[in-house]
Specification:
β4 (92-95), α5 (101-112) and β5 form a beta-alpha-beta unit. The protein contains 15 helices and 8 strands. It has helices at 4-11, 14-17, 30-39, 49-57, 101-112, 129-138, 152-156, 165-168, 181-186, 188-206, 209-220, 225-239, 252-259, 270-273, 277-284, and strands at residues 45-47, 62-67, 75-78, 92-95, 122-125, 143-146, 160-164, 176-180. The longest helix is centred in the last third of the chain and has 19 residues, at 188-206.
Length: 289
């Protein structure tokens, strides 16, 4: 639900109020979204910093102007009978795509518990968030990260939460607001209006739980109010922050993990890949409260 701020801004007319005409498109997965951005199919995209880092290591010039999820917005779920991360030794742990956000988050969680992701478990790429959830329910993987409200079926099935990654407050670039540098340089007013809209959306969401959960229910086609309320509490209390600054430290895990298999990762200057000025402007004008 990292895109919740943009959905709310769209549904409540906040983008329009800031002079923007936004066509929200859903693209399944960070790798596919990154490809669409690089191809020019979209101008602004929201996806993982890890995928943006890989794109720049491959010759792209993407810039992250905000971060909707500065911590890992996940819980690590495991099959019944597995009660600790140590119990994952020798087990299959699902991620969406190798090198993607869920992969980085999963590896970070395993490492924080003293496990070697490449030796102690078998990491399996299943293709998408939806596939990961389905694989957990089917038992074809033993563990994987998920987040509210998409974890509602896992909760129903009695799967075990091993770790609340968001609660650990590990810095992450899980969902950046990203664009090509050429677009940024030519459209700074548009980018500022977009960042302003997201900042304002968070303020309004804090005061509008009913409206915010209704928006989430619409986009997830979910009418389980308990699950929607739980997602709201999780997202607003553990994940999002008033000012959505992208920071170099948020890329630390991605650099370490992706860099182990790609020497070009170390050549990317993260400080030049992020631009904090748009969030700084929003804060200077106290748009986040």
């Amino acid at each position: 639900a990292d895109d919740w701020l943009s959905w709310y801004a769209f549904e409540k007319g906040i983008f329009t109020d800031n002079g923007l005409t936004v066509d929200l498109q859903s693209i399944n997965g960070g790798a596919q979204t990154s490809a669409a951005l690089l191809a020019g199919s979209v101008q602004i995209a929201q996806f993982g910093g890890a995928e943006a880092l890989s794109a720049n290591a491959g010759g792209g010039d993407l810039v992250v102007v905000a971060n909707l999820a500065p911590v890992y917005p996940y819980k690590l779920y495991a099959a019944k009978g597995i009660t600790s991360i140590q119990g994952l030794k020798g087990k299959k742990v699902g991620v969406s795509n190798a090198g993607g956000s869920s992969d980085i988050a999963t590896r970070a969680a395993l490492k924080s518990a003293g496990l070697d992701p490449d030796k102690d478990v078998n990491i399996v790429a299943v293709g998408s968030h939806a596939n990961r959830t389905a694989a957990l329910l089917a038992g074809t993987i033993d563990a994987g990260v998920d987040d509210p409200p998409e974890d509602v079926e896992l909760v129903k099935a009695g799967l075990t939460v091993l770790v609340d990654l968001a609660g650990q407050k590990l810095p992450a670039a899980n969902t950046g607001v990203i664009m090509q540098r050429t677009f940024l340089n030519a459209n700074k007013d548009t980018v500022q209006a977009y960042v302003d809209s997201l900042t304002i959306a968070r303020v309004k969401m804090k005061a509008d739980k009913a409206g915010a959960t209704a928006v989430l229910g619409k986009y997830f086609k979910l009418d389980n109010q308990t699950a929607l309320d739980g997602a709201y509490d999780f997202f607003m209390n553990e994940v999002t922050v008033p000012y959505l600054y992208p920071e170099v430290v948020q890329f630390k895990d991605a650099v370490a993990i992706l860099g182990a298999g790609n020497p070009n990762i170390a050549k990317v200057d993260i400080s030049k890949m992020i631009d904090r000025s748009f969030v700084q402007s929003a804060q200077d004008r106290k748009l986040g409260g």
